[in-house]
Amino acid sequence: MTSIDHEGAGTRLLAPGLAGFYEKATPFSWLIIRVAVGSALIVHGWPKIGRARGPGELMAKMPELASIGAEITFVLMIVELIGGVCITLGLATRFFAAAAAVEMAVLTFYIYWGNGYAWTARGYEYTLMWGLVLFAVALRGGGPWSVDRRIGREL
């Protein structure tokens, strides 16, 4: 049995009996990625807003953010929380995924780059990986199971 990928190039399945499963499950794959990415952003954004009364207080609690300024820190907080919710729902997916990818680029190259690659040494491994995944979401959009698709509008 041959499987047709998105670009139309055929490949042979090692287990042809799984073709039906793959056909039914594939539309959900982008939903899973979107929910994973969006919920990770929410989990990082909510505590920042909950434990600080604004960017100034947050920067006092997280000194690595002090170097980028209060305005940018506020934008990062909004992108993580509001963007995370919207990416999870698939609403304005491309916009918020692109904004969060830019955030991850700032964090990767401006905040964590000097620490090296390994996240265990506060390096850029984690932010680089999430930035690349967010960039892929921005390129792909919300997918078939998204509010964007439901309303028929996308950025």
Task: Please describe the topology of this protein.
Layout lengths: L1 E3 L5 E3 L6 H32 L4 H7 L1 H4 L3 H20 L3 H20 L12 H16 L6 H5 L4
Antiparallel strand pairs: 1-2
Helix pairs in contact: 1-4, 1-6, 2-4, 4-5, 5-6
Record keyword descriptors for this entry.
155 residues, globular, 4% strand, 7 helices, 2 strands, mainly alpha, two-stranded antiparallel ribbon, 67% helix
Question: How would you portray this structure in words?
Answer:
The protein is mainly α and 155 residues long. The protein has a domain at 38-144. Helices cover 67% and strands 4% of the residues. The chain is built from 7 helices and 2 strands. The chain has a two-stranded antiparallel ribbon. The mean pLDDT is 85.
Give a quick summary of the entry:
The protein is mainly α and 155 residues long.
Q: How would you sum up the global shape?
A: globular
The structure class reads mainly alpha
The CA-CA distance between the termini, in Å, is 37 Å
Return residue spans where pLDDT drops below 50 for at least 5 consecutive residues: none
Helix-strand pattern: EEHHHHHHH
Summarize the main sheet: 2 strands, antiparallel
Percent strand: under 5%
Oligomer: single chain
- Quote the average pLDDT: 85
The portion of residues assigned to helices is: 55-70%
Find the count of extended strands (DSSP E, 2+ residues). 2
| Rounded Rg | 18 Å
Strand order of the largest sheet: 1-2
With helices defined by DSSP (H or I, 4 residues minimum), what is the helix count?
7
